Every structure is written in structure tokens, then in C-alpha cells.
Amino acid sequence: MLLPLLIAAFVGYFLGALPFGYFVARSKGINIFEHGSKSPGATNVKRVLGEKFGHSGKRLGDFVFFLDALKGAVATGWPLWVLGQITMSSEETYRQVNLPCAITGLVFALIGHSFSCFTKFKGGKGVATAAGGFLVLMPVPLLLSLGVWIVTFYGSRYVSLASILAAVALPIGAFFLHQPPLLLGLAVVIALFVVIRHRANVVRLVNGTENKFAKKPNSA
Q1: pLDDT tens digits in sequence order for the chain, 220 residues long
Q2: Residue extents of the structural domains in the chain
Q3: Which residues is 122 bridged to in the sheet?
Q4: Which residue of 31, 129, 173, 190 is surrounded by the most CB atoms within 10 Å?
Q5: How far apart are CA 78 and CA 137, in angstroms?
Q6: In the chain, count of helices (H) and strands (E)?
């Protein structure tokens, strides 16, 4: 049991540590750590590149979100698939081996994303990576959380507020949809992790200085 967990942690960390936001911004000649909120997350990449390159820059920000979510999904999904092939996944084996390894992969992907060894242990806030992992583990609560994000964002235009409320909504949805205790506990822990990573945004929200994704009026 220990060896699969260690492998899931190792692979998860290095998948999560891939700094796609940094790479994408660098491809346009920009060091993302010197612009905007100085985060390599998709939100900052989209804002910075959008201001400099318009719609093509914003699309690159969306691409970063996709890649960050993908690494979370892969870090979570590969232990389920590989161990499923090896153990033929009885219900008991799934609960005792496969699921803990998948959760370990996601947790370490989040750690890698937030504290990447490739960028001097700087990183993003982990929202996209967590979303990719939970899409594999419990898609229905994730879709409910996504609904909260969409309503909050389009109502307020604050990405940070939408991310915080979506993170909080995830364990609530998991509880009411009777997810396994292990997944419910994971959702609570990751929700706290996301909120803590947004603590500077919370201060700016309270002070009224947080950046909005405001719609620009159409030019004449």
C-alpha cells in the first residue's frame, strides 16, 4: 500500500508543478511573476495577456486554465485506471487502495501547482487543478460548484470571490449528495486550502480594491 501512495504523490507533485501559466506567458515575452498579481494562475495570465494582446491573449488564459485542470485530472485519474487494471477493482480494493492513491495524487498535484520546484516554489492558487481532480472523483458536486462560480462571477465580476464561494460549495454539495466520507473530507480540506490561498484577495475584497473582470464597452 505504501509504494502506490508514494508513486502517486511523486507523480502528482511533478505533474502539478508544471508551470503552464509561466510557460504560456513566457512564449509571449512576458514574465508573469512581474505582472498583475504576479501569479502564474490562469486568471492573472488571462488578465495580463488580455490587456496586451486582446482576445488572443484572453484565449491563452483560458488555455492555461484547461492545462492546469488537465494536470489535476491526470494526477487523480491515472492511479484509478492503472490500479484498476492491476487489482480488477473490487469495491473493497477501490475504497482501501485505489481511491486513497487518487486522492494522494490530487493533493500533491495541488501542492506542486502552488509551490512549484520549477519556479522557486511559487505558484497559483490551485482552483483549476482542484477542479480537474474533482471532475474525476465526484463530477456532480463539481458541476454544482461550477454553477456557483458562474452565478457569482457574472453577478460580481470578481474571479476571486467566485472561486472562494465555489470552493465552499463543493463540500456542501458532496455532503448533500452523500459522497463517501473520504471524498467529503478531501473536499473540506481543499476548500480550506483554496480559501487560505485567496487570503490576500479576501483583504482586497473587504477593502474594495480587488480587481474585477469588467466588460469593456464596444467601440464606436
Answers
A1: 789 899 999 999 999 999 999 999 999 999 999 999 899 999 999 999 999 999 999 999 999 999 999 999 999 999 988 877 766 556 666 667 788 999 999 999 999 999 999 999 999 999 999 999 999 999 999 999 999 999 999 999 999 999 999 999 999 999 999 999 999 999 999 999 999 999 999 999 999 999 888 665 544 3
A2: 1-123, 138-211
A3: 116
A4: 129
A5: 12
A6: 11, 0
